[in-house]
Amino acid sequence: VCVCVCVCRVFAALFSNISDCDETYNYWEPLHFVVFGSGFQTWEYSPVYALRSYAYVELHGVVVRLMALLGLSKVTMFYGLRVVLALTAGVSEIRLYVSLRRRFNGTVSLLFIAFSSLSCGMFISSAAFLPSSFALFCNTFALAYWMDRRYFPAVLWTAVSGIVGWPFAAALGIPIAIDFLSSNFLNFVRYCIAALALVL
């Protein structure tokens, strides 16, 4: 199962095209600017408007800087980051597969991994350098921990998805919150405060 998912995700990193202009101009260009000192700046990043933070871009800049230390070409670094993103998606899918197998049965988990691995949406999203794709990884981890009844990591991954990734993705944590609130309100509040403190 792990090999199947990883192969599908690496294929996505190598063969999926960039289908969103925001990925190019709001993430790849600023990443090039942050790492190499040149690149286009969209109006959202301009200090005049400051609608976007460089924090999300810097998170990926760490990976690219490590690759730059190895003396890799920019093209190799581009594909390298896409492979890292795709494999992160694959690890999150495998983690959810394991949780589903434990919680339900082998049939449910195998159906999930088959549909997920072969999904065109996952093919495109797994290698995309977009906050919504990052939120996808985080929320997949959150669902996996929720299935295991491990609430703190579920709350933490939901917080990371909404704060670091895409704010609207935090809504995917509503079922986790309802489930957790129904059993232990005080721990839910504590976990939310702890998650916010860790992320911020």
In helices, the fraction of residues equals over 70%
* H-E order: HHHHHHHHHH
Shape call: globular
Structural class: mainly alpha
Determine the oligomeric state from the structure.
single chain
Q: Note the gap between the termini.
A: 35 Å
Largest sheet: none
State the helix count.
10
Estimate what percentage of residues fall within beta strands.
under 5%
Average pLDDT figure: 93
Low-confidence stretches: none
Radius of gyration: 18 Å
In total, the number of strands is: 0
Characterization of this structure:
By secondary structure, the protein is an all-alpha fold. Helices cover 76% and strands 0% of the residues. It has helices spanning 2-15, 21-36, 55-69, 74-103, 106-118, 120-126, 131-147, 151-165, 174-183, 185-199. Helix 7 (131-147) runs antiparallel to helix 8. The longest helix has 30 residues, at 74-103. The mean pLDDT is 93.
